[in-house]
Structures are given as structure tokens and as C-alpha cells.
Design goal:
alpha+beta, five-stranded mixed sheet, Cytidine Deaminase, domain 2
Length: 237
């Protein structure tokens, strides 16, 4: 597709070039805080698609994936289904997602404070990793004796609404990590964060198993697309 020329004067640069400059200026002014998701995507695409109006592509991405986070978590195959998205553009999305994941984990794991004092960062990390997954995933976040994060493990990836967790496997990993406490985390792709009967039962089983080796279960967090639930806050554990 050829570049769109200036509608008022074909001898002038294409309209979108001035728009791109304004987007960059807005981003530099406040780090993108005042920009909608589609505008951030649009600005990202300017670096992968140098000679084209990318606003329609950005809006189609929002329509298809719902948000910037949804697009970043989408597979390369799904991104390539959007007209105008090339492999270079898809790689840019995945690169951005991985950079955000590493930054979020570094912020969480490098902290010298107990995870309870850094709870928002823990939830932000879990949401960035799991909120937009299409299947359930079960993770363990391992903590030392001062409740600082020392590691993480993806235990299971299941169907759209079920994972199979065995307390003995949790115990094995906990001892390997030399953890003194841990947090269980899994997601509900449906978006409903209300714990199921199975969620409650497996939490109680794991808590009981951990007590046999003097390890504390701090919480079991359920992540949804727009919300989360804490089984500790619900007094399940």
C-alpha cells in the first residue's frame, strides 16, 4: 500500500507524519500517561511500519484484543491475523511484553522488603503474567524466612477451566527452593475470580501438607482479567 499524501496539498509530506510527531511529543511530555491504549499501540507501530497511517491498525488491534495488555499477551499467530501487522510488528509486541515482564519481576524479586509490604507489586506482576491467558495456569511464588521473594515456578497449565495440582509436588518444589513460605496463584480465564469448591479444597490440602514441613501458606490468589481475589482475605485460609 502506498503512503497517503497530504489531502490539502500533495506536494507536502503525508498527514500522518505530523500526527506521529505529535504522538511522540505527547509521550515524551508525560510518559504516555494521558494516552489511550490505541495511541500507545499506534506510536509503537510507527517504529515497525515507517511509511503508513497506522491509526486504523491500532484501533483494529484494540477491537480484536480489547487492550494493550491483551495484544501484548496474544500469540504471534493471532497478531498476524490483523490486517497490516507484519512479523516485525508482532515481534515488537512480544518484545514489549517480555521487557515489561522482566521489569515487573525484577522490581518484585529485588525488593528487600517482605512481600506483604510490596503486595501491589506482587499483584501487578501476577496480573501482567496471567490475566489475559486463555487457559488456567497455576504458579507458586516462593518466599524466604523474611517473606521476601526468592523464586517462582509454573506448576501446571490446564484446560480453559481446570488444572491438576498435587500437594506432594508442591512440597517437593518448596524443599528444593528452601522456601519458608509461599503464595499460590492461578487465573480464571472466565474473568470470574470467585473461588470454586475445587480451589478451596486444594488450597486446604496444600496448606495442611506445608504445615508438616513447617512452611507457611501466605495466600492463594485468583487472577481475573479485571480483578483478583485473595483466599486469605476471604478467610478460606
Amino acid at each position: 500500500m502506498t503512503a497517503r499524501t497530504n489531502q490539502k496539498d500533495p506536494t507536502l509530506p503525508p498527514d500522518y507524519l505530523g500526527h506521529r510527531a505529535r504522538l511522540r511529543e505527547r509521550f515524551l511530555n508525560d510518559g504516555g500517561k494521558s494516552m489511550a491504549d490505541y495511541e500507545i499501540i499506534e506510536l509503537m507501530l510507527t517504529y515497525a511500519i515507517p511509511r503508513r497511517d497506522v491509526k486504523p491498525i491500532a484501533k483494529e488491534i484494540i477491537r480484536k484484543f480489547g487492550s494493550l495488555a491483551g495484544a501484548a499477551k496474544a500469540s504471534v499467530a493471532k497478531l498476524l491475523e490483523v490486517r497490516g501487522i507484519s512479523e516485525n510488528s508482532a515481534v515488537l509486541f512480544k518484545l514489549t511484553a517480555e521487557a515489561a515482564r522482566r521489569f515487573s519481576w525484577a522490581e518484585l524479586s529485588a525488593s528487600d522488603t517482605p512481600v506483604i509490604s510490596n503486595w501491589d507489586a506482587m499483584i501487578d506482576y501476577c496480573r501482567s503474567e496471567m490475566a489475559h491467558l486463555d487457559i488456567e495456569e497455576f504458579r507458586i511464588i516462593f518466599l524466604d524466612i523474611k517473606c521476601r521473594v526468592i523464586g517462582e515456578e509454573i506448576m501446571q497449565k490446564g484446560t480453559i477451566n481446570q488444572v491438576a495440582i498435587h500437594p506432594r509436588e508442591v512440597l517437593k518444589l518448596t524443599m528444593e527452593k528452601k522456601a519458608s513460605a509461599l503464595i499460590l496463584v492461578h487465573n480464571h480465564p472466565s474473568g470470574d475470580v470467585k473461588p470454586s469448591r475445587a480451589d478451596i479444597e486444594i488450597t486446604k490440602q496444600i496448606k495442611q501438607a506445608l504445615e508438616s514441613i513447617n512452611v507457611s501458606l501466605l495466600d492463594h490468589v485468583i487472577i481475573g482479567k479485571y480483578d483478583y481475589a485473595s483466599l486469605k482475605s476471604m478467610q478460606v485460609i
